[in-house]
Amino acid sequence: MLDYEYHIGDGKEVIVLLHGIGGNSSIFYKQIDEYKKEYHVLAIHLPGHGASPNLDAYGKKFSFDIVVNEIEKTMDKLNIQQAHFVGISLGSIILHHLLQRKPERVKSAVLGGAVTRFNSLSSILLSMGGLFKGVTPHMWIYRLFANIMMPKANHKKSRELFIQEAQKMKRTNFLLWFDLIRTVEATYESVQENSKAVPKLYISGREDHLFLEELKKDIKGDISAELIILDQCGHVCNIEKADQFNIASLAFIKEKEENQSLPFVG
User: Fold this and answer.
1) Is there a domain that residue 169 lies in?
2) I want to staple 23 with a disulfide (CB 3.0 to 4.6 A). Which of 19, 30, 32, 118 is the partner?
3) Span 135-164, average pLDDT
4) pLDDT confidence of residue 261
5) 266 occurs within a structural domain
């Protein structure tokens, strides 16, 4: 069973939070209190993070299917049939796979710093990381990626937070995640077809130079998707522009909640 934090708030609906690689629920420290004013909040620690199982504990090759199954088990334990989801970075990748596999569990999806595929620079970086991962400390690779992904002064807080939290991660867990995210394109390939009824809000920073342009191209034909781009903001937009992120995500969730009539059990 995945490790999680369940914050009881006002209202009946639940927002599920999915963090980025190396992170944990702490990356949502600017969202949880705001979301709790109107929702229960379930902050899940993905495999290899927090007190969740190590990635090699599942007895088979680690996959996105395993992660989705574990999220479903956690929801079932808490008697949550459906929820609104907010995913950041790796969390957006997991959320895309959930939308492909189990769209009926998702009432609405907010995807911050979303990743649908890698551009030329990020592909080169991944290839380099793959070459050197066996002989290089994993935190060296993580710091390199963090600094390239979030290079500017206004990215410093989110960059440092992710590096700080990633130091708690075991090397084997990081390397297995590193190998898995190289297949990121497979997590988006049928999202539009399988989740037509699920409203999606993408929030990205204009300075998210590794992923934004690919995202804009990929969601262009998705009639259930909206995109908000935040100025002077990088990859981890929920930290860098927390107020704008909170206002936009809550307004979106409330609007979609009002438009949906499907009963919720919580």
Assistant:
1) yes
2) 19
3) 87
4) 47
5) no
Please give the pLDDT value at position 266. Answer: 41
Tell if the pTM clears 0.90, that is, is over it. yes
Q: Is 53 exposed, middle or buried (0-12, 13-18, 19+ CB in 10 A)?
A: middle
CA angle 177, 70, 171 (to 5 degrees): 25
Q: What angle do CA 84, 90, 96 make, to 5 degrees?
A: 50
Which residue range forms the structural domain that includes residue 49?
A: 3-259
Would you tell me how many other CB atoms lie within 10 Å of the CB of residue 252?
20
What is the domain count for the chain? 1
For residue 87 the two structure tokens come to 């995913």
Note whether residue 265 is domain-resident: no
188/193 Cα distance (integer angstroms): 10
User: Percent of the chain having pLDDT more than 70?
Assistant: 97
Cα–Cα distance measured from residue 257 to residue 246, given in angstroms and rounded to the nearest whole number: 16
As a whole-number percent, the residues of the chain with pLDDT over 90 amount to 74
Which segments within 178-254 are labelled E, that is strand? Answer: 200-205, 225-230
Assess if residue 205 is contained within a domain: yes
* Average pLDDT in the chain: 92
